[in-house]
UniProtKB/TrEMBL annotation:
<feature type="domain" description="ABC transporter">
    <location>
        <begin position="232"/>
        <end position="468"/>
    </location>
</feature>
<comment type="similarity">
    <text>Belongs to the ABC transporter superfamily. ABCB family. Heavy Metal importer (TC 3.A.1.210) subfamily.</text>
</comment>
<dbReference type="GO" id="GO:0140359">
    <property type="term" value="F:ABC-type transporter activity"/>
</dbReference>
<dbReference type="InterPro" id="IPR011527">
    <property type="entry name" value="ABC1_TM_dom"/>
</dbReference>
<keyword id="KW-0547">Nucleotide-binding</keyword>
<dbReference type="InterPro" id="IPR036640">
    <property type="entry name" value="ABC1_TM_sf"/>
</dbReference>
<protein>
    <submittedName>
        <fullName>ABC transporter</fullName>
    </submittedName>
</protein>
<dbReference type="InterPro" id="IPR039421">
    <property type="entry name" value="Type_1_exporter"/>
</dbReference>
<dbReference type="InterPro" id="IPR003593">
    <property type="entry name" value="AAA+_ATPase"/>
</dbReference>
<feature type="transmembrane region" description="Helical">
    <location>
        <begin position="137"/>
        <end position="159"/>
    </location>
</feature>
<feature type="transmembrane region" description="Helical">
    <location>
        <begin position="53"/>
        <end position="73"/>
    </location>
</feature>
<dbReference type="Pfam" id="PF00664">
    <property type="entry name" value="ABC_membrane"/>
</dbReference>
<keyword id="KW-0813">Transport</keyword>
<keyword id="KW-0812">Transmembrane</keyword>
<dbReference type="InterPro" id="IPR003439">
    <property type="entry name" value="ABC_transporter-like_ATP-bd"/>
</dbReference>
<keyword id="KW-0472">Membrane</keyword>
<keyword id="KW-1133">Transmembrane helix</keyword>
């Protein structure tokens, strides 16, 4: 999560695409350079056979100068090429942002702004390409001047050999006639060197990405947790996204199997962060989180995420059919399992009302469905997954109260079926009155905890929230230990 929240997905995609240059690099080195070096060795051998060691040494000398000149001049080409690759990624980022956020672009009528922004990236890319082209071909021209010089030098040496009677005039004709073939491997090799440089620069970003170490990994000796009862404990947990600000402060939670723990509080108080910590999207700074007394850092990420089911705040559907999206939760699910899950989440009848039923395409990120329909599909998905621990993060916030109470009943039945431990994050307090524990968060701390009745009696933050939401007069401020 650390990785993805820091990076732009379009840039990562472009870097992966540019990384295709690695295949070309491998092909150039293995399939082309090695035969070219063999060709060059043969050319030097032929010169030695036709003339003498000096002519072949002159060719080798020219070869060394040529490659050295290529290496020296290549450093002047690196920066424009790097700028070009960077401009390409920037262009992909701007394009992706405008396409993905096209509704925002429309709402704010920013077509011209986006057009200009995109135009700027095209200009930057063309400018970088032009600089690269000019520098590349100028330097290439300078380097290739070595070729005629080599030809004249070798010709002079060959003529001298003939005048001394060491070679025949026919050998000179041979040199002239076959010159292109003799010099060809050299030119080819320098082109290959240039290509290799270019491919390496293009793939630079991918190589850097490949070297990025994930912040959260299985530790050595991590074991699979298997089936769990659902005891979840947070012990004095501390966490910060940024070292300068602590997001979760000394949080302790104890959830027994089958219990429902509700997390409430102002927006930004740290409720969703608690669920991300349980899923180990991030590692905590201090304290301990355990499931059935297994520290979650000791078990494999795979087995941890297997036992937890989440309905996130903004569920994401893939661009496919409703059926495909539901099956994603459990590829082995039968059609009747899927229907039962959809009935429980009060979406089955709605799906049947669509002309294509379960084969309806949901569009990118579920754009063809309403917010409430997406949420109900997300609930159906988690029912299909059948996890031991459930996290519902504002799972029914976009659903009307009538449908919500239907889903709530289905979710209660689902929770009780297997004594599932549930964490429910909610702003609408009416959905969590029956919770076994309600934890009230404020700026990363739990400031109140208890059942609904206890907290209302206590008359603190929760009681105020409750009275605001239900329109009942403020409860009498009564300090009750039971509420704390
Ligand atoms: N990836 C992140 N990087 C940095 N800060 C983050 C990140 N995610 C959340 N935060 C910050 O952490 C704090 C807690 O966020 P969190 O999402 O847990 O709040 P929340 O209580 O769930 O809010 P809401 O009710 O609005 O969903 C916020 O101040 C938020 O800006």
């Amino acid at each position: 999560m650390d990785f993805h929240s820091e990076r732009d997905s379009a840039e990562v995609m472009k870097a992966l695409e540019q990384g295709g240059a690695l295949t070309k690099l491998l092909r150039t080195v293995v399939c082309e350079s090695l035969p070219t070096i063999a060709d060059l060795t043969i050319a030097i051998g032929i010169l030695y056979w036709k003339f003498d060691i000096y002519v072949s040494l002159a060719m080798m000398f020219a070869f060394s100068i040529f490659i050295a000149a290529e290496i020296i001049t290549s450093r002047y080409k690196v920066e424009p090429r790097r700028q070009f690759a960077r401009a390409e990624r920037q262009q992909a980022r701007v394009m992706h942002q405008a396409i993905q956020g096209w509704t925002t672009v429309s709402y704010f009528n920013m077509f011209n702004f986006e057009r200009k922004r995109f135009g700027k990236t095209v200009d930057a890319k063309l400018a970088a390409d032009f600089t690269w082209g000019v520098r590349n071909f100028t330097l290439q021209g300078i380097v290739e001047l070595i070729i005629p010089f080599t030809f004249f030098t070798l010709s002079a040496m060959a003529i001298r050999n003939i005048s001394l009677g060491r070679s025949k005039p026919g050998d000179f004709t041979f040199l002239v006639q076959y010159w292109d073939y003799l010099i060809y491997p050299l030119i080819w090799l320098s082109h290959e060197y240039r290509d290799v440089m270019q491919y390496l620069i293009d793939a630079e970003r991918l190589l850097a990405l490949l070297q990025t170490k994930p912040a959260v990994v299985d530790k050595e000796g991590a074991y699979s947790i298997g089936a769990v009862d659902g005891h979840v404990r947070f012990e004095n947990v501390q966490f910060c996204y940024d070292e300068r600000k602590t997001t979760i402060k000394a949080v302790s939670i104890c959830a027994k199997p089958g219990e429902t723990i509700a997390l409430v509080g102002a927006t930004g108080a740290g409720k969703s962060t608690v669920s991300k910590l349980l899923l180990r999207f991030y590692d905590i700074t201090s304290g301990r989180i355990s499931i059935d007394d297994h520290d979650i850092r000791d078990i494999t990420l795979d087995s941890l995420r297997n036992v937890i089911g989440v309905v996130p705040q903004d569920p994401l559907l893939f661009n496919g059919t409703i059926l495909e999206n539901l099956r994603y939760a459990k590829p082995s699910a039968t059609f009747s399992d899927i229907i039962s899950a959809c009935q429980a989440s009060a979406i089955h009848d709605r799906i049947l009302s669509f002309p294509d039923g379960y084969k309806t395409k949901v569009g990118e990120q579920g754009v063809k469905l309403s917010g409430g329909e997406v949420q109900r599909l997300a609930v159906a998905r988690v029912i299909l997954k059948d996890p031991s621990i459930l996290i519902l993060d504002e799972a029914t916030s976009a659903i009307d109260t009538h449908t919500e109470s239907n889903i709530q009943r289905a979710l209660d039945a689902f929770k009780n079926k297997r004594k599932r431990t549930s964490f429910v994050i909610a702003h609408r307090l009416s959905t969590i009155v029956g919770a076994d524990q309600i934890l009230v968060f404020d700026e990363g701390r739990i400031v109140e905890r208890g059942t609904h009745e206890e907290l209302v009696k206590y008359g603190g933050v929760y009681a105020q929230l409750w009275s605001k939401q239900t329109g009942t007069p403020d409860v009498v401020e009564e300090e009750e230990e039971g509420g704390k």
